[in-house]
Amino acid sequence: MYVCIPGLSTKLICPVGGYPLHSFQWTRYSAETTISDILYSRLPVPKGVSLPSSLRQKVDPNGSLLIDHVERESDQGLYVCDGENKIGRHAQGVLTLNVISKCQPDQIDLQLIVRSLE
Fold it and tell me: Over 90: is that where the pLDDT of 79 sits?
């Protein structure tokens, strides 16, 4: 789980392993979507948004998703990173991004915001 304050930038590290990974595809689902909905449900997976979907987002060469000026409405939710190697094998990782309200610095552990909870 990643936690961020609106207006800051964040870096979501693709939680998949494998070498060498050739390409990465990120998808964001609404905050109401659960990991079980994605990984274990027999029902159709809810439609997600392929990323990057705006100029605020980009994927770096290591597969991390960089988001500038995080917004609660458009960025909070469940993220899936799909990594593919050169022979076409895929690995998926799932994480969540929670965007919290702004507050005074003494009311929150800033290390929690900067570092992910893995």
Answer: yes
pTM for the model stands at 0.77
Tally the C-alpha atoms within 13 A of residue 100's C-alpha that lie toward its C-beta: 16
Mean pLDDT of 7-34: 87
* Rounded alpha-carbon distances, angstroms, from residue 71 to 59, 75, 90, 103: 18, 5, 30, 15
Give the fold, CATH level 3, of 2-114: Immunoglobulin-like (2.60.40)
How far apart are the C-alpha atoms of 7 and 20, rounded to whole Å?
Answer: 34
Q: Where are the domains of the chain?
A: 2-114
Quote the strand ranges of the chain, DSSP E.
2-4, 10-12, 21-29, 49-51, 57-59, 65-67, 77-85, 90-99
Checking if the pLDDT of 47 tops 90, the result is: no
Instruction: Give CA 117 to chain center in angstroms.
Output: 13
